[in-house]
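Record type: monomer structure entry
Structure origin: computed from sequence
Chain ID: A
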Amino acid sequence: MPAKMKLADIDRCFALLSQRQPDPQTELHFTDPYTLLVAVVLSAQATDVGVNSATKGLFAAASTPAAMVELGVERISHHIRTIGLFNTKAKNVHKLSQLLLAEHNGVVPTDRAALEALPGVGRKTANVVLNEAFGQPTIAVDTHIFRLGNRTRMAPGNTPDAVEAELLRRVPDKWKKGAHHWLILHGRYVCKARKPECGACVIRDLCLFREKTA
């Protein structure tokens, strides 16, 4: 079995990534925890660019749970019709808005269990909201981070949950707040799925990927 990246090298990786991008942030457009929650729910099987295009009109029409409930499923669906699974997502956004009003006084909860009880909100979505909106040291594992965890051997695992557990165990605490963003952006723009741009990679010398590109 290939070796895992050394803990000291993981620390160095994040030091290098942080130098390149001191204040990493999500590329989804939002103004508060509620609009972030909606944007992340909509982002499943969709690009951030596509979601931002759809939410521009949606959030202009409704940017609070009460306004979203008033907008209704059909008009929500119309605003987000350009992204995948828009009918199901419209129903989820409408229902989660109703539940926020009924059970949380219209406020996005700050604990995982309450978030995951909302329609369309799984572990990854909850992790993004907890990290980005509330500053909690969670790491949401999407396809990019799953790939990086295994490719670099920083946190190998057969499932997203396994990679998440390894990252939480192996990444130094001082880097956990930004780890999700550094990894996802690195995977999106440098360590790409089909052909990683190893020549432009600041952690190239620490990465254990055997088939590095020139």
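Annotation 1: DSSP finds eleven helices and no strands in the chain.
Annotation 2: Residues 86-104 form the longest helix (19 residues).
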